[in-house]
Amino acid sequence: MSNKNKWLDYLLNIDRKVVYVIIFLSVALPFFLNPVVDIQPTKWVSAVYDEMEEAARTNKPIIIGFDYDPSTLAELDPMAKALLRHAFSRNIKVLGLNFIANGTSLAATTMDDVAKEFGKEYGKDYVFFPYLPQYDLVLLNFGDNFRKSYTQEFRGQPLENIPMLSNLQNYDDFHMVIDLSGTKLPTIYIMYGVTRYHFKFVTGCTAVSATEYFPYLQSGQMIGLITGMKGAAEYESLLKTKLNLPTGDGMRGMASQTWGHLVIIIFIVIGNILYYVRRRMNMEIK
Amino acid sequence: MFFKKTVPFIFTLSVGIFSFFYYFMPHAFMQDLWDKASQWAIIIGGGAMFVGVISMVRAYYKRATNKSDPNRYFAMLTIVCFIAMTVIGLITGIKPGSLFNDIFVGIMIPCEATMFSLLAFYIASAAFRSFRLKSFSAGLLLFSAIILMLAQIPTGENISPAIPWLKGWILDYPNVAAQRAILIGIAIGSVATALKIILGIDKSIYAGVGGK
Amino acid sequence: MSHDPWVWVAAFFTIAIFSYLWKENPLYRFAEHILVGISVGYLVCITWFNVLQPKLVEPIMNNGEYVLIIPGIMAALMLFRFSQKIGWISFWPLAFLIGFSGYAIPTVIETNMLTQIQATVNIPLTGGWFEIASGLLIIVGTLACLVYFYFSYPHKGVVGKTAQFGSMLLMISFGASFGFTVMARISLLIGRVLFLLRDWLGVVS
Amino acid sequence: MKNLLRLMVILVVVSFAFNSYSVNTVEVTGKDSPNDKGEAIDIKWTLDASLKTSAIKVFVFRKVQGEAEYKQIKELDITAENFNDKNELKNNIPYMYYLEFRNVTGEVVYKTNEFGPYVAFPQWINTDKIPTFIFSLIAMIVILIFIQVAKSGRKLYVRPLPGVQAIEDAVGRATEMGKPMIYCPGISVISDIATLASISILSRVSEIVAEFGSRLIVPNYDPIVYSVTDEVVKGAYLKVGRPDAYKADDVYFLTQRQFAYASGVSGLMAREKPAANFFLGWFMAESLILAEAGSMTGAIQIAGTDSISQIPFFIVACDYTLIGEELYAAATLMGEDTRLLGGLKGQDYVKLVAMILLIVLFVLKLFGVPGIDTILVGGN
């Protein structure tokens, strides 16, 4: 009786560091295995893919809001790269916006890297606008004419020198707006943009805030949603199967994602079993 | 008293009423006035960002000069890094390829990204040691969570196609009902908050001024 | 093994922050204090190059829009928040900024209430029995959750049962966001481990 | 006189604005785009199948009526069937248009006759937003009424909450066992409603603590919140008539960095071995660390937050959780903050209006009343 009790006590009050090592290994080891290959894209990710194809067909540029900072980089940067690869491979012009100060350099670097892959030229095929505060007002004025808020692009040239922007004025000249963010910004885009100007709006969000966007999907205020690293992996698998573009970090992390999730599920189950065994034993002693 | 309370109240009330009616009145008169006001607000917003900067510099300067504080030298390090980064940025500019950008990629990204990745360890240890099935609600929550987790990974799809389907159904139906009710509750809350601020009923926004 | 010095710097800081897991130590404090200093310096430069220079300084210098001096002064007034004597002067620009929440009232009502109620009412109750049941679930479920958050009537009888049904839906929704949060946290760790193994050590492709 | 003449011209011209020209195979209509500040004209056209296959681009040409020369103002894909002309378009001036359809090689496949004139003019009220205006007024009036009623001191009914009972039982149990309690008021600023609610609950909890002489530790995240919690706990001891029993160093400012606060409180829990922990207010990702450290010490844990993303963790790691607005309701039941009571009741009745609206519209739709599906959000 007593050594079983001793084992239970040891396991229930196991040192946190043991748990830390287990989760670290469960994420690190799978990188040495071959990556996961097939993932079934969900409805809302395919919707984003189809809408991007529609943008290619109508030859209208798109807006991507890079509203994330290093803290949510791991989930949203693979998504940004996948969307940019899709846009550039289909010769869709991209306008980058940013309302998170700490993420400004991140967005600029990501756009330049992917543009280099496809030989796209800054100012002609893609352009990045600087960070501005008071994003609600900027989003509102964007519906009238974005020159009211922005006088220069990120590298400091006035907007008149940018060939891509010559006949663009507001949301109507863009096929859709995609906002990548882990913050409340997608809701702000809807409140200050979609409600007044009714453009097509897609969100790429961190998995933490995914559930709160589904009412907007059901009401049609939002037409697509990419959720976390798995969403990025789904989009990459779509790009792979349909356009034969190489997969990125989203897919690369899926093996570790699998092991990590299984470890957490096992922890929850075992933790509860031990807890209830312990309680029943206490009942018997009393 | 007039300058401290009444003038700010006049500002908030007038801009508040104007922006409320701007929502309903698209006429050019309102639009031009709005463009002017929002351009000013963006500039003031730029100034507001320095409030955070100054409060941090004051806090760390106080710790750096406080003899008894064990982290004195660390606080000095923060001040030095702050000055260095500002000077480098103002000299080299912020475009990709500048030293400013290299410091961002080399130091800010790893620190901030790793700081938040610690949460994976905390959720693992919490999963084992504190997520207990103590009530029916917690049970329902953990059941729905495990379905979601399984559906996130290919293992879920291999076990049975019902899992991804169930995940889709949970997200598109019960979740929409619950989140929609929460959304409506929060919306009413934010209307009440905005109303109390504009009408000057709630003055706690102005609390904490005077450099304490 | 990477030869880029900045990758080595990044690896050093990654390990320094990971050391916090073992115990709070000087290496971690060193990294944290550097992060605070650099991120505030970063904020100053971004604000200057992206906001104040293009929106305030250049319009005044090049195009002579001297009217912008007024918002410029108000922006400076914000900083008086810290002075004991005339701290109240910072209320003026703050009050001006807060006023814009007047637009938030109608837009929140239309976006997060009326459009949501309209979408709930517009749910098509057509197709097989399962589609109809699911559609009804949203309509009845939204009402049930609203009743759960209603505090002016005791939860007894029918109202009590509806609220209980609402709380069950809330639990399922919280379970979904719990499952998503687990994925989010693990993804953050995957990002860092991938950086260490691939970009730094190069042991992984 | 000149103005009168110009007014006449406009009136005549406006009367043309709404008719449509049938221009052999291409049906074209135009009008001022509604609900805007003017400076915009909506052009709509329908193509027959032959044009859709041969041409790939549509070119829109415009000139002011009476001018000689047309100017190309827009190039559109053949799939487009309408165009909202907004660039440099002035109000109250008649414009003439014609369309050109070109094929792949850029050669004109078809050119419509000129159509118009169309005049753009601004509107003062956006008619689509009238339902929003009505509901905004109702919401604001109801909220203001209840703020005044609560301020006047009238007692307003708030239903009993199991959470309040859970908090009082936890304080009782900790007092019996003679062990301390830890109360975290969240990591937000004083103006955040969740912090105000937490402070209101703290005032009641510290009264019970003062009465029975048990020990309450309150680590704070925000210096201003610290100054308020310090006064609230001291006030409770005063109210119970035992000012000397108040231990000032049990209520202290810990730190203002998220993870440092979490590990500081975890260390406190490991040292003090509290019997009850309270996490009431706004929390972020550090809630996980607090709840786990607390559950390891076997303490009763009561949580309450309106931070939706943290609620799941509190539910599985704590004994009882106040979800979202339940935190505000508990605060009104336990404390005497009339502001919170007015806010809660006002929002409650606006919620009631929303519920009734949902039920009524649903019933009307069941009976097939037309127009229900766009009644709230206007025609768009």
Run of helices and strands of chain C: HHHHHHH
Question: Number of helical segments of chain C?
Answer: 7
Helix proportion range of chain C: over 70%
Distance separating the two termini of chain C: 12 Å
3D shape of chain A: elongated
Number of strands of chain A: 6
Average pLDDT score of chain C: 91
Calculate the mean pLDDT score of chain A and round it: 90
Element-by-element helix/strand order of chain A = HHHEHEHEHEHEHEHHH
Biggest sheet of chain A, open or closed, and with what strands and sense? Answer: 6 strands, parallel
Chains forming the largest contact:
B-C, 129 and 115 residues
* Secondary-structure content class of chain C: mainly alpha
How widely separated are the two ends of chain A? 15 Å
How would you write the strand order of the largest sheet of chain A?
3-2-1-4-5-6
Give the low-pLDDT segments of chain C: none
Overall morphology of chain C: extended
Explain this structure.
The complex is a heterotetramer of chains A (286), B (212), C (205) and D (380). Chain A has 286 residues and is an alpha/beta fold. Chain A has two domains: 2-33 and 258-285; 43-252, Rossmann fold. Chain A is built from eleven helices and six strands. Chain A has a six-stranded parallel sheet, sandwiched between helices. The longest helix of chain A is centred in the last third of the chain and has 32 residues, at 254-285. Helices cover 80% and strands 0% of the residues of chain B. Chain B is built from eight helices and no strands. In chain B, helix 2 (28-64) packs across helix 3 (72-92) and helix 3 (72-92) crosses helix 4. The longest helix of chain B is centred in the N-terminal third of the chain and has 37 residues, at 28-64. Chain B starts with a helix and ends in a 14-residue tail after the last helix. The mean pLDDT of chain B is 88. Chain C is mainly alpha-helical and 205 residues long. Chain C has a domain at 103-205. Helices cover 75% and strands 0% of the residues of chain C. Chain C is built from seven helices and no strands. Chain C has helices spanning 5-18, 26-61, 69-77, 91-99, 101-121, 129-148, 157-201. The relative contact order of chain C is 0.07. Chain D is α/β, with parallel strands linked by helices. In chain D, helix 4 (162-177) packs parallel to helix 5, helix 7 (258-272) packs parallel to helix 8 (287-296) and helix 10 (326-334) packs across helix 11. The longest helix of chain D is centred in the C-terminal third of the chain and has 29 residues, at 338-366. Residues 13-24 of chain D have low confidence and may be disordered.
